[in-house]
Design a protein that fits this description.
mainly alpha; two-stranded antiparallel sheet; 5 strands
Length: 256
């Protein structure tokens, strides 16, 4: 259904096949997103200009047809945006109204759009360990790249807030909150270390930092773990028959 040039073109637009996604399902997903983009009224295209350049440099894709709109409805107080994904398909990217002016509580619109575009690119993945790590790598602030991914799921914030509120009445709740944060930092540092080891291994095998980062974005949590332990990239790639690894071989391994 897809020839090599078509698959490579979709990759540059941020359409990445999921780990268990067939070619037929992938084509339908892409068509669904593009159809929604053509039919809807979304944020001005100029709001994506910096995002496209930035993400092309970091992860080798440029989002050109992501449905995105401004609305505060359904967003938690600390959320500047959210990607709505239904059955492995991106429905839309929602941004807080305050971002119309370009920033919200110290976050630029471009940075938040880049963050959500990474989630959109990986919409067919179910890989919670690395998802926020990739999204925060699109940040232009080093401390957000380092510490932003400490929260993987929204309920983790609510658990901490509950402990903080209960601490006014029950001293043990303060300890529980501190342990919760400590566990989050330990998990974050471990994931950073694993990602760094995998990146170094891929960089040596694939021929450069940009190649390694692009490949990493297209991997599962289990594969990141394998490459962090020294799995041979070319041997592993040669054994894979799925559409995702066909793309990785075409885009990043053919010249090696």
């Amino acid at each position: 259904m897809l020839n090599d040039s078509e698959l490579l073109f979709l990759n540059t637009q941020g359409f990445i096949p999921g780990p268990s996604e067939s070619e037929e399902v992938f084509v339908k997903r892409v068509a669904s997103v593009k159809e929604a983009f053509v039919e809807g009224e979304w944020i001005p295209r100029a709001h994506w200009d910096w995002v496209r350049i930035h993400l092309k440099e970091i992860f080798d894709f440029e989002p050109h047809c992501l449905p995105a709109f401004y609305s505060n409805k359904g967003l938690a107080p600390w959320q500047g945006a959210a990607s709505w994904i239904e059955e492995g398909r991106l429905a839309s990217v929602q941004l807080r109204e305050g971002l119309r002016k370009g920033s919200y509580f110290g976050y630029s619109r471009g940075e938040i759009l880049a963050h959500e575009a990474v989630h959109a690119a990986r919409s067919a993945f179910e890989e919670p360990a690395s998802e926020e790590l990739f999204a925060y790598l699109a940040s232009d602030k080093w401390w957000r790249r380092a510490f932003g991914p400490i929260v993987r799921r929204p309920w983790e914030v609510w658990a901490f807030l509950l402990c903080a509120a209960a601490g006014a009445l029950f001293p043990w709740a303060n300890l529980a909150g501190a342990l919760w944060v400590g566990a989050g930092f330990w998990r974050l540092m471990w994931q950073h270390q694993k990602m760094r080891r995998a990146g170094n291994h891929l960089m040596a095998a694939a021929g450069g930092r940009k190649q390694a980062r692009a490949i990493l974005l297209r991997l599962t949590d289990a594969e990141i773990g394998l490459f962090s332990r020294g799995e041979n990239l070319y041997d592993y790639a040669g054994r894979q028959q799925c559409l995702r690894w066909r793309l990785i071989r075409l885009a990043y391994l053919n010249n090696q």
